[in-house]
Specification:
With 590 residues, the protein is an alpha/beta fold. 63% of the residues lie in helices and 9% in strands. It has helices at residues 2-11, 16-50, 55-103, 106-110, 114-156, 158-205, 207-212, 216-268, 274-315, 383-390, 413-417, 434-439, 444-447, 452-462, 489-502, 519-532, 545-548, 568-572, 577-585; strands at residues 337-346, 359-368, 372-376, 401-403, 406-407, 420-423, 507-511, 537-541, 553-558, 561-566.
Amino acid sequence: MKRFFSFSKRYVTRYIWWYLTGFVLVAVTQAMTVAIIETIKNGIDAYGSTGPTSAAVQDAFQLIALLALGLILIRIASRLLVFTPGRMIEFHVRNDYFHRLLFLTRSFFRNHETGDLVSRCSNDIGFVRAAYGFAFLQVANVGTAFAFGLGAMLNMDVAMTVYLAIPMLIAFAIIQGSIQYMFGYWRLANTQLGDLSSLCLASYKGISAIQSYCAEPAFERAFLATNGAYLNTNLTLTKVRSFIMPLVQVVGNLAAFLVLWVAGQKVIASEMTLGEVTAFLGYISMVMPPLLSLGWMLNVFNRAVPAMERLDEILLATPDLAPVTQKLAKPGDETLDIKVKSMFMQYEEALEPHEKAFSLSDIDFDLYAGKTLGILGPVGAGKSTLLETLLRLNEPNPDQIYLQGSDATACDLDSYQSYFSFAPQKAFLFSTSLRENLAVSVPVAERRKPKFDEKIMHYLDLCGFDLDPDVFPHGLDTEVGEKGIMLSGGQRQRISLARALLKDAQVYVLDDVLSAVDHETERRIIRNLKVFAKDRAVVIVSHRISAIQWTDEILVIENGTISDRGPHDSLMNNAGYYRQIAHAQGDAHE
């Protein structure tokens, strides 16, 4: 329960007055229920002694009607006051969850599957809302029903109440035992649901690969196995509930039988009135439903606690970053100065069991305003890893990257990354309009400027992207589909490049952004980049010599280290990988 109280402290305290007021109204409804039962008892006794037309019977009828109307209104108000905070807590948890995911580092996402994260955001948060809404209301209901109902029964007949307490205690013991048994299965069901979501999401994302390799049967078997495990867990829970709930119902009926058996003899002996027997039956009907709902309430709580544990893995996760001890100037306030010294970065695990984990080592270069840096190397040499470490998508080691004279790892991550704009190797577009995809890289205030669309069109033209009316009938408002599925690979790349160039940055990092464009479009983009890069630092990775030969310096990366470096003409004079690739491509020319 420590986790439950910790979670509640963060989210429930702001709504404490809602809950307290709601609980008070729940207590009022129970008090009014007792009043109705007492009025029925008095009315029945009056009916037996004075007849149906007596004033006492008429008064009892009117009072019951008035109390019932008040009970309806107050019960509605109590539910609004208790259920609303549950919904608001769900809102805050969901916001905090999404906010935290946005700021966690890549190392976190390597260890958490996307489907499981989605499952936690939907199913687990739903369990939490149910606990803080329905279950909290039932806590108040159970507590006040027992307090008022048992109090009224003790006031009428202590011995009779003791008789009734025996089956109630039996019912409570049955419920507690079943809850303890089912707790592990609830936790397992939550985990299995996350696994099922991960498998579904991975299958949907890779549906083209699955269909092209005719791998549908294998994925169907994997789904059936995972879904079957989840089904078996829920069937076990259902079997336990199916046995427990009727057993508790029998206990409730046993309580009514005891009233009729014991109280009936007292009525015959004139030791108890018929109205009192009716009142006892009324109190049983008042107390037993909350007792039966106790099982469902504990069910909700016991599903919510494992859900809170899973949510706190995200909500309390912290980025794997060193403490901030140095402050960076705003981009543009000082002349750009980046130094990379003996950069080393190693992945935690190797791709194959008996292989050494891939690492970058001995990477050195400088960047300043107006410098262009090209990077070339075979597939898997470490080019993208180098860029991602420079951008701190992979956290570098201390004393290896210096920005404006400050150690990168000692600087605030947002401040550091504000110096850079990045076009990744795999162009990702959101399922929205072309304008919204391009505007992601700029502040909201700039998007609202009157000539922002003109700026977008300028950078689209710079990237060789023609807004053909036949392809884009709604211009910048044209929807591009899920991951830009409505566009070709070259179009997605050019939009991704334009988005990166739209950002006002000091360093533009372009990871193989011309691989899907034809050579004529490439030459057009390179001409424009030469002009764009006059007062900016540009780092460009490519497998094409023609895309990087214009840069001031070229790094040749092989096996995670620099095997050669220099401008194009110098590298062409060396008998190495660069010249080999240039001759193979046959385009080592201006």
